Amino acid sequence: MTMVFVAPSLVFAIAIASAFVAFPTDAGGGTWQLVQKNIGIVAMHMQLMHNDRVVIFDRTDFGHSNLTLPNGRCRRNPYEKSVKVDCTAHSVEYDVASNTIRALFVQTDVWCSSGSVAPDGRLIQTGGYNDGERTLRIFNPCSTCDWQEFGPGLAARRWYASNHILPDGRQIIIGGKGQFNYEFNPKAKTGADKTTFRLPFLWQTNDPAGVMNNLYPFVFLNVDGNLFIFSNNRSILFDYHNNTVVKTYPEIPGGDPRCYPSTGSAVLLPLNLQASSIQAEVLVCGGAPRGSFQQTIKGNFLGALNTCGRIKITDLNPQWVMERMPGGRVMSDMITLPDGNILIINGAADGTAGWEAGRNPALNPFIYKCNSPAGSRFEVENPSSIPRMYHSTAILLRDGRVLVGGSNPHLPLLKLNSGMISNSSCSSR
Length: 429
Ligand SMILES: *[C@@H]1O[C@H](CO)[C@@H](O)[C@H](O)[C@H]1NC(C)=O
Ligand SMILES: *[C@@H]1O[C@H](CO)[C@@H](O)[C@H](O)[C@H]1NC(C)=O
Ligand SMILES: *[C@@H]1O[C@H](CO)[C@@H](O)[C@H](O)[C@H]1NC(C)=O
Ligand SMILES: *[C@@H]1O[C@H](CO)[C@@H](O)[C@H](O)[C@H]1NC(C)=O
Fold this sequence. Notes:
Blueprint: E1 2-6, H1 11-16, E2 31-36, E3 45-48, E4 53-57, E5 75-76, E6 85-86, E7 91-95, E8 100-104, E9 114-117, E10 123-126, E11 136-139, E12 148-150, E13 162-165, E14 171-174, E15 181-185, E16 197-198, H2 200-204, E17 218-221, E18 227-231, E19 234-239, E20 244-248, E21 265-268, E22 281-285, H3 292-297, E23 307-312, E24 320-324, E25 333-336, E26 342-345, E27 348-351, E28 358-361, E29 366-368, E30 378-380, E31 392-396, E32 402-406, H4 411-416
Antiparallel strand pairs: 1-2, 1-32, 3-4, 4-7, 5-6, 7-8, 9-10, 10-11, 11-12, 13-14, 14-15, 15-16, 17-18, 18-19, 19-20, 21-22, 22-23, 23-24, 25-26, 26-29, 27-28, 29-30, 31-32
Bound molecules: 2-acetamido-2-deoxy-beta-D-glucopyranose (NAG) (4 copies).
């Protein structure tokens, strides 16, 4: 099930875009509208393409989806964990303009993979699980295009890695479970280039208790050409040309982890291009206290973090400034809206990421007004009626609306239904 959320400040943008979907132009608090009741798969990953279509995909190893692949096509994969002959789709394309769904054929397991869009508009999605852990997948946007897969395209297995597009058009792929290194795509050498580069920061921030907290690190390109990398409770400025740490930032105050499974979220705040020297700021919000994941196994669901840290990464002496959100939130998504404000949406108020590990869905999005005075930056938006917990997503559409989808059904429910994911809703507890 997918919904759109429209922030109140964007009512004007909506009015312009009313040819897409009819909207009530309401007052403050935002508007929710259900755009698709059942897209057939769980929207674990979403990417907007330049042709106004959204590529959506879910893991392949959880049995049949609720959408049959057209033209009698089936995936016959001896390495697949669940269904060896699978005639259902695990990826779809959502056409925003016509509000329709087209089944796509993804052939390897994209579960917790990562990707970025290349300058030519192709989505390059790498890694994942099992048969997909070293796969390179390309989705070239067009009305009939489908996934193309190349394997093994990665030098290392990448599960829960982070990708970022670089100024020269390459993609950097950082980390992943058990991978304290990074690599580039395309590679310097053609053929089977196995080059990876060590990044000790990733094992330094690997939680010794075994729940990592260094997965899906937050990565942003700084205005000086270096990469800001945040993992667990620490961050560095990294020169990927020369494999050197340029700067080590102070640990985030409180020291609690912000990365998977204590999943918070982060954005690079909008840059002021009129300024004589351009400054860059990063905002990190939410997450879960240290030890939270282990507590969920014992049936204790600790309150999620309600703090955000903001830091000017271009400063000579950068310091975190902490702010308090109107509520705690883990597994959130943060989106920069066209008016420059930040939407904090989806997730849970208690627990962590992981199967059955979240409680108390955070139904009200927050808006963070970057330029308002500290202490009056947050605004609580109208709630959704659908919990969006583990494996949920949100992305900005070109008309200013935010498309929201995903959240996995319960694990026992899946077992009961012999692996059938009936629709993409339900994960309330
Ligand atoms: C999808 O779900 C509906 C409703 O439960 C069911 O009637 C239909 O057969 C399902 N389709 C597939 C391909 O699983
Ligand atoms: C990386 O090192 C080279 C010399 O080895 C130097 O010319 C270059 O400026 C460095 N790159 C950056 C971004 O500092
Ligand atoms: C930051 O994270 C590390 C690694 O998990 C941990 O050992 C350290 O205690 C944390 N810092 C604080 C202040 O909690
Ligand atoms: C989703 O599936 C559940 C379980 O089959 C069902 O109860 C619920 O009505 C469905 N929701 C929608 C929106 O189709």
